[in-house]
């Protein structure tokens, strides 16, 4: 691993990720687990946030406590599967703003095409976490990062549940400054560009579609 790739080895993340991989895990449990894993990852990814001292009054006396010192955060899910990660992060960081990026793959060129983008107006002032459960070929993730950069984003992290080296290489070829955070680094892709062993199509498993 390079310093730009961080694999979460927390036992709870690894345990829950193992259940997510099981083909017998249904949509309801899958959604709940993705939300729980995202919350645990959000705890880990925000360890660097700066604090400042604030004077308050407890029921007993005056004291100094720690508060987040004005760091502006944003979450940008890549639709549709990235939506499954948003609520878990928001449960820890409810003041974060949420943008959305929608992409589809052109059937002829196989390149990602942007069809929707709605982002916070102050995107350039925020630390942004781009989320998608899977980092496979990296094409969609790289295109999403390019789209938000084009609109003024400067501080970006990418967060996923599982990744393969091909996707990591694609992001770092196009966006070498963007750190990648993942729950697992899987061996590779099959002939259909699915992560193996992976957990199948995240969107289908989240929403019970085929």
From TrEMBL:
What InterPro entries does the record tag this protein with? Answer: PRTase-like, PRTase_dom, Upp_B, UPRT, UPRTase/APRTase
Per UniProt, where does uracil bind? 195, 200-202
Top-level lineage group: Bacteria
State which Enzyme Commission number(s) the record gives.
Answer: 2.4.2.9
* Pathway(s): Pyrimidine metabolism; UMP biosynthesis via salvage pathway; UMP from uracil: step 1/1
Q: Which GO terms describe its cellular component?
A: cytoplasm
Documented activity regulation: Allosterically activated by GTP.
Q: Which UniProt keywords apply?
A: Allosteric enzyme, Glycosyltransferase, GTP-binding, Magnesium, Nucleotide-binding, Transferase
Q: Which cofactor does it need?
A: Mg(2+)
| Residues noted as binding 5-phospho-alpha-D-ribose 1-diphosphate in the record, renumbered to the chain | 80, 105, 132-140, 201
The UniProt note on the cofactor reads as follows: Binds 1 Mg(2+) ion per subunit. The magnesium is bound as Mg-PRPP.
What enzyme class is recorded for this protein? transferase
GO molecular function terms attached to this record: GTP binding; magnesium ion binding; uracil phosphoribosyltransferase activity
| Domain Phosphoribosyltransferase, first and last residues per copy | 8-209
Task: Show the catalytic activity.
Answer: UMP + diphosphate = 5-phospho-alpha-D-ribose 1-diphosphate + uracil
Q: Which SUPFAM superfamilies match?
A: PRTase-like (SSF53271)
A Gene Ontology BP annotation from the UniProt entry:
UMP salvage
Q: Tell me, what does this protein do in biology?
A: Catalyzes the conversion of uracil and 5-phospho-alpha-D-ribose 1-diphosphate (PRPP) to UMP and diphosphate.
The entry assigns this protein to a family as follows: Belongs to the UPRTase family.
This protein is called: Uracil phosphoribosyltransferase
- From what organism does this protein derive? Pelagirhabdus alkalitolerans
From the UniProt record, report the name of the gene that encodes this protein.
upp
